C-alpha cells in the first residue's frame, strides 16, 4: 500500500470526523479513502478509528498515532517548501543575534557579502554580548563564541575553533614581573570576561594536563574590546579570543604570557531553534558561514 497516502487519509478523516467529508477534501471517492485507512490499520495491526452510523472518531491508539502523523506530514510539507525555495531566489527576513565584537569585526562584513548573493533577503542583525534565548526572543539564528552545548530545543553547529590567548602589555609585565607558572596568576591583576565572582578561575593546559587557577578579577566585563583596551593600558593580564587581540600581538602592544600553557579553546557556534532546521534561508546562511569562517 501507499503508506503516505494512508497517513494523509487517516489524518483527514480524524480532522473532519468522517469518510465522506474527508473524501471531498482530498478529491477522492469515499470508498478509496475507506480502503486507504483500512489498509493502514491492517498493516499496523491496530484499530485506529471507531466507526458508527453517525460518526467516526479515533481510538486511544488512533489519537496518539494522529498526533505523530501530524508532525510527520508537517515536516514533509516544510521539506517540500524548502526544496522549492532553494530552486528559487530565497526571500523574506532572517533575524540574527551575535556578540558585539565578533559582529563588528567579522560578521557584519560577512552578512553584507551574503546579501549581495541573495538580494531578496532582509536581515536584522542584533549585536549584544548578553546570552539570549533565540526561541524566547524570536531569533532565527544565534551566533555564539562558547563551548558547544547540547540542547533539546536548539540545533547547535560548531563552525570553527576559537583559540584563546593569555596576554598583557610589556609595561604591566615590567612593573609586576614575568609569569613562570599558572600559579603565578594568583598574584596578578586579571581582566576577566563575565561577572564579578569570588570563584573566578582560568583553566590552562600543558599537554594533557589541565591546571585551574583562581584569579583576582580587578576588572570584569562582558565585552572583549573593553578588556583588550584595559590590557593595552597596563591594567592587568587578559584572557581573550585570538581574533580580538591578534593585531595588538602583531604590533607588540600586547605579549603572550605562559606560552607553554594553552587556554582551552572556545568555538564559533551557530544555534537555531529545532523548528527552523528545514528553513531554506537558515540553511543557506549556515553554509555561507561555514564557508566563510570554517577555514580561518
List the helices and strands and how they pair.
Elements: H1 3-16, H2 19-26, H3 30-44, E1 49-51, E2 56-58, H4 60-87, E3 92-98, H5 100-117, E4 121-127, E5 141-146, E6 154-162, E7 164-168, H6 170-176, E8 189-193, E9 201-206, E10 209-214, E11 216-221, H7 224-232, E12 237-241, H8 242-251, E13 255-256, E14 262-263, E15 266-273, H9 280-293
Parallel strand pairs: 3-4, 3-5, 8-11, 8-12
Antiparallel strand pairs: 1-2, 5-15, 6-15, 7-12, 7-13, 9-10, 9-14
Strand content: 25-35%
Q: How large is the radius of gyration? A: 28 Å
Mean pLDDT across all residues, rounded? Answer: 86
Main β-sheet description: 5 strands, mixed
Taking pLDDT < 50 over at least 5 consecutive residues as the criterion, the unreliable ranges are none
